[in-house]
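Minutes, structural biology subgroup

Action item carried over from last meeting: produce the structure token record for Putative dehydrogenase (Victivallis vadensis). EB confirmed the sequence was re-checked against the source entry. Recorded below for completeness.
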Amino acid sequence: MLKWGIAGTGQIARAFALALNRAENCRACGVAGRRAEKAAAFAAEHRVERAYSSVEQMCADPEIEAVYVCPPHPFHAEWARCALKQGKHVLCEKPMALGMEEIHEMQRLAREQGVLLLEGYMYRCHPQTAKLVELLKAGAVGRVRSVEGAFSFRSEFNPASRLFDPALGGGAIWDIGGYPLSMANLVAAASSGNAPVRPERLEAVGVWAENGIDLLSTALVCYPAGIVGRLTVSLTSTEDNSLRIYGEGGKIVVPDPWVCDRVNPPQGRILLTRSGEAAEVIEVPCDRTSFTLEAEYFASLAAQGKTDAVFPVMSAAETVLQNELLQEWERKAAGK
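Output recorded by EB:
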């Protein structure tokens, strides 16, 4: 039973607390945030055993074995380092950090301490993703040529909100761009082996608010195997958030690729159309949310003494690639 501390008290922390309370091999032992009173209220509301006055105090508690890091983006690296220096396993919400130097430092600390450090892309732990990888490896649609993915929703512009505040890492690319980008990376890796594949080229355009954050953006990525990804993120409109993969012998459509329902276990569903044939509907049942599956998978790795994930869950090497590409996406979208 892995004993968790939650570093953060926002909406995603609430989802993870619920996930821990439903997990078979996890226990929600502590919570801390930027304000002690919020941590106390969080603990009482979400069945967390203890609230701490600070993240430092929680990380120093020998009973805490793993820390889920989920504050606003600029605090990810600081709080993760705090936990790692105390020898805690760390599951860090995406993006792991806003700078590559911070990510390399976090990974160095994890290696030195012999602990597990993963970036939280929970959809990678859902059986629907494993089924998608299985289909791609089996050549279900022949040689893959393109992938289209989006993550979008409409939110009223509010410069005080985390989503729109540049000081808090706001903007569509950093907040949600990791989803379609990581999926394109997954498709490229599954189509040519399991190792991360760096695109040969990335181009992007975007629309920017007056305060300097991106409201929406589209990126084109081209992988060495001849796979082109068309990726869109938006905070201004809700678009088609499905995943579409086109191969020389057919197509795959995943209506809900991110399976991100935080309360009810999302059921997987894949539509496979081989050339000249009717669409085949592949149902992928699941009895847990992606967040619970993520927590349980992380706990199983920690129990085995593992210090990295196995594909399709995001590995340390893929985290480096992913965040380098997010930085490039932002630069290209800004015309730099």
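Discussion: The radius of gyration is 19 Å.
Next step: EB to file the record with the rest of the batch.
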